[in-house]
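Why predict the complex rather than its parts? Because the way molecules touch one another can change local conformation, and only a joint prediction can capture that. The input here totals 789 residues.
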Amino acid sequence: MKVLWAAALAALSLGAAPDDTAVAIKGARVIPVSGPEIDGATILIRGGRIEAVGKDLEIPWDARVIDGAKKVVVPGFVEVHTTRGTDRPNERIASVPFVSTFDSINPVDPFYEDALRQGITTLCVMPGNDTMIGGQGCVVRPVGVTTESMMIVRNAAMKISLRPRPGVSRMAHLAALRKELHEASEALKDKKGEPDPRREPMSRLLKGLLPAFVYCPTASDVHRALELADAYKLKVKLVLGRDGWKAAGEIAKKGVEVILDPELEYWESDEEKHEEVRRFGGDAIAKAGLKFALQTDGMPYGTSYLWYQAATAVRNGLSRAEALRAATLSPAEILGLGARIGSIDKGKDANLAVLTGDPLDAQTWVETVLVEGKVVYERSKDEKLKRVLEVKK
Amino acid sequence: MIALAAALLLGLQVEDATVLTKARIITVSGEEIPEGSVVVVNGRIQQVGATVDVPQGAKIVVLAGKTVIPGLIDGGCTLGVAGPANEDGDEVAPQVRIADSLDPRSPDLARARGCGVTAAFVEPGNRGVIGGTAAVIRTSGTSRAAMILREDAAIKAAIGPGPSQGNYPPRGGAATFFARRPTTRMGVAWEFKKAFFDARRGGERHSEGDPGRERLLLALAGKLPVRIAASRGTDLETAMQLADELGLTIVIEEAQEAHLHAEALAKRKIPVLLRPSVGAAVIGVNDGTDLRLDTFGILIRAGVRTALLAPGEQRSEGLLSSVAFAVRYGADRRAALRAVTLTPAEILGVSDRMGSLDAGKDADLVVLSGDPADLTSRVERVMIGGRWVSEERADR
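Output of the joint prediction:
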């Protein structure tokens, strides 16, 4: 409850008149993601933004100082695609472009609190994978007791799923989807009709003003997604299934950004050799030079464990830098917010996670989280965590 | 001593020797060797140490920078079981044996091997009050016979809401699987007790020589352990009461709320195979459960012999990650690794053959790229009985 109240208070002050509060994180190992790590660095924050990062910076007299000694500071993690934190993510009707998670986000869902606890400062809350045109998602900060105060981008993207509903064939699903897109593009040509708010999201989608997150459960769906993107000039981002990497070459030809399946590591039977082969979804994607992000939606070990996903990626051969970028700056860029969040750079929002150690180490804990310069989480005050875990001295 | 060993070896005719060298060796039973070797001869570990005598003609495998640990042992799973692991025909089925469902060609076995699991306690599921007989297997072998280490390792039972879920009392009409008794927690406890009463007096469901009855009688005589799946604290308490009353030797698995009964478990010397809670979902959940992240540490400190299972969906592939999470939640590194190697070996009664890197034990071992508690460490090679059963493919 305490965490919640702290979050609520922080939310009240967020979005208030321009404030001049200064914070300094002093003497930490800083991993800016956009550039090389800096040891013993200080981060100066004013008015919610990062003012300076570097060594030997003078700390303003009015700054609240957070001791960063022996700590590691990373940009707040960015959860690029989640279907949690709402009442239910999937509408039963196959095509509902006009709905938005804005209306279903539940700010007091413990999911958001857990996100903060794991160092996540930005989430894109999307409709689920079970509805053909599932509606629009919103980018939020996991802070605040009202949806409005959480909001960063209302209706940031449209969710389209290529997974047919039970009992529907793949061809029928795609035919229905093409029909919807065709009708919407025809309606776009018809200027005479009254403006219809229900049509507006599809209009924005077809005009390229609203990106589409297209869920491709299998690699073969990727080709259909790319074809639809071409035919209707959609701005697509692909939410891949676990074998989506097999279409990396095709995706690279179009330079489309991708979100990897939460099950990064999986097994496949090699029919020819009668062998079980361990597969990793990130390798081919990274080698193809694609921009990709990690997600945790539906992970068996716990949602919001982006640090765990990054460690899994490194275990499977990605570099540390690639893995960390895929949990911070790349998802920020995929959400169109790369200029504002995702790295520790001058001028960006002060969304930071202060860690007890290396971000990929399972023994590391998130100690303090700042969202737009405000301390919104402190482990020392996390009563809920203390209740299930005795802190070892 | 070494000369004697060499002489013995000559006498035995060395067929197959491999030396793993220049690796960090975590024996589990003893001190860690920062850089040493493991000598494997004819499927067994012959020497472990900073310096060893290399047998003539041995294959040398240089593992600089790698870490060698004992093979992981999954102390409770349905690995390699073809088809369902629950016999739905009867809620009390001590006569069925999971060994009959074992398929050596199951892809799950290959996957588990690839993740470092070299042995497992394979058991019927949690749907029956008494689900059948469990077996201890090696995860590699061309036939069932070659895989099975202990065919009748324990009777598997379940206490709690599991066996009654979906059941309803018959209301006339044809009985179906789901018109089974019991329908409540108390019904499950009674069915459990009744099975043993019936076995003792040879009652309605048992005739002389019935293999199910024989096994229940062995359990009553304390010669066959009863493995009980019990998640909630209340189920654990029921399991302990039943064991006290019937004089059974029991082992508890799942045990998510075992921290509530740590002392009682320690006092009775009941071993626990804990399915660890690792997720954020444990925090602040208000559904009447009392899950903790540090249950393992609490049990160890109370003196309960505790092994770790894989977290989450009961898939052996994640067993190694239990080590990293246990350490994250406060456990000692050595204790955490022991909990997936030597401790389960002891609980399963196979610690004379496996569970640690000691001379005389089977050469079941795993080569890791780094520390076992590090999530970025990869399983690079796995050896079972002196043979490499999993090696990373170059095309990865």
